[in-house]
Fold this sequence. Notes:
With 372 residues, this protein is an alpha/beta fold. The chain has 2 domains: 12-122, NAD(P)-binding Rossmann-like Domain (Rossmann fold), CATH 3.40.50.720; 133-313 and 345-362, Dihydrodipicolinate Reductase, domain 2, CATH 3.30.360.10. Helix content is 32%, strand content 24%. The strands form 2 sheets. Strands 14-13-12-11-7-10-9-8-15 form a 9-stranded mixed beta sheet. A 6-stranded parallel beta sheet has the order 3-2-1-4-5-6, with helices on both faces.
Amino acid sequence: MANELSANEPIRVGVVGLGNMGVQHARSVDSLGHRVVGGADVDPRMRDRFGEEFATRTYETHEELYEAETLDAVLIATPNKFHEPVAVSALERGLDVLIEKPLAHTLESAERIARAEEASDGFGIVGFHNRFSPAMTVFKEYQANATFGDVTHVQVDYVRRRGIPGRNSWFTDPELAGGGALIDIGVHAIDLALYVLGFPRVVEATGISRSEFGWRPEYVDPERPESNDWSADGSSFAVDDSASAFVRTADGCTVSVEVAWAASQMPRNEVVVRGTDGGASFEIGGDSLTIHHTSTRGTPHYRTSEITPTSHRTPHEAQLELFLESIATREPPACNRFDQGLAVQEVVDAIYRSEDASRSVSVDRADEETPA
């Protein structure tokens, strides 16, 4: 049941999915002065841990949580496959919803969530928290002041040398996750690129995904020794552990994406922006921004500016603060909207379809696919 808010009243939040991300969100709710009034998870151990830390009631299902507690909002941190039933049920009750990225495990499921929001008195946002990093926040301010001219290309690399989630986790289960590295960390890369470009209409994508490491029994992650014991056989690893893609928009802009849970190279975590009047580079989720210009003042030269802003909140906290403030004011945020999450999901879907077709495809599946 939705709660009628009065001025300065704490927002009452329920959390569905009580793993590490659900706990992190709940701690942020507390730190921002609002109330976690209940949680739901199928795992009794998670429920016990959450209930003890936040002194709140917990339930096995989201429906039990919604029926028992008076809520204003729901934070969803379940495996991707369950985003839809949890979110749609909340939206049908008029609750506001934050869904951890991606919007869903498939494009069809994401579309149903978006339609549910359209029919609801509640609103939703997707948890693309890297938009709230100091580097990205400052970049958008400089971009708004025409520092870069027209941005025409964005290159995003999110490459781990090692870092595959365990074979027995939901992250590597195609039924629960909807894919591998591309739908896990790749959505962050695609979202940031489209955010930089202002979410233009994407018309074409070409890509390939690979599974080169996850099936190997000798896979080693020196920084996470607990992940080195691959007890399952290689056939159980049925998702991609890396992907390369190229995306074209209707207005002629382009995006190149490299993502990997594992690769035989040094890790890379960078957004590179090319504009007609300047460029920029920064780490995904980073604290500093580098701006690149040239000048003819005095004598022709390069001008490189390093900007290190300060921030009083982590990106996750800043994102949640925006969400909670929007609930209090009843003004849905312009950032991280469901339609933007759906646009990211469309690109992910097109990249996977391009892999299957071995050629470029139209992002709009109603259109004919681009001939080879």
